[in-house]
Amino acid sequence: MTNDDIEIIGKNVKDMYGAFMGKVVGTITDIDGSIQSIGVDCSFQGLQQIQYEQIVVQNDAIIFIPKWRLDSQRLIREKQLTLRRLKALIDIVSENDHMKADAEIIHEKYKSKLVRLDETESEIKAKLEERATELEEESKSAKMLLFDAKVQCKSNEISETTFDTVKSCTNEVIERVSHELAEIKNVKSRIADLELEVQEMIAPSQPNVQESAVSYLETPESQQVVQTILPEAPIVSTPKSSEPIRAETLPIPESPTKSEVSAEFQEPPKQVTPETPKDNDNDWLARM
């Protein structure tokens, strides 16, 4: 057992965001004495074997790095290097055409490397989606615990101090999950940008506008003539009648005379009003 093994054993293991994971109980070494993995007691999760490349040894603790982060960083680094070499190769060929035959072999090598990286990229994307789903479930569980503790506090089942403790612990979980989700989103964005850059590099270049103009000028004039005279519209002849058209005149009716108008409209009957007899008045005066 080397001195490094002695320093590692017994130390606490935390993730990148400060959450406690367990304690190192031992190591597995290669025949040359190098550490291959460490054994971490993760309590109810049992004894977990973690690759040595996934840890960072510090003075007070050991930091655990998730596998998806290492794989994505390796993918991004290799893809960026391959793209830089492809660009350099294209620049060399553009400066010296005599090296085109020699550069073709290296160009195919880099293209096959990009194809293999694309396969690795698909696997990493699937791992990122799976991890993001797990983190979202953890965030939901933490929020449910916090809400339930709030209900218990309002119903006087737990004290304010207990609720504050639950709130502090759940907020730490939610904050840790939010940081990891943000990092996953950032990694996915970088991978998407590199994928777009690869497509632009491999895609055939569009024809230059100047070259297309020159090719147009070199075409024969017979193909460039455009018909501008439109055909005349056909004239439809209408048959002419030899006989003149006669218009029939109708007789105008005569206006009625005054006597006929008065005969048609009779006078209304006169209103008959009964006359009051005057004898009654005379009798009344005689009695007075």
From TrEMBL:
This is CdvA-like protein. Residues 236-288 are annotated as: Disordered. Residues 276-288 have a biased composition (Basic and acidic residues). Residues 117-145 form a coiled coil. Pfam families: CdvA. Keywords: Coiled coil. It comes from Marine Group I thaumarchaeote. Residues 84-204 form the CdvA-like coiled-coil domain.
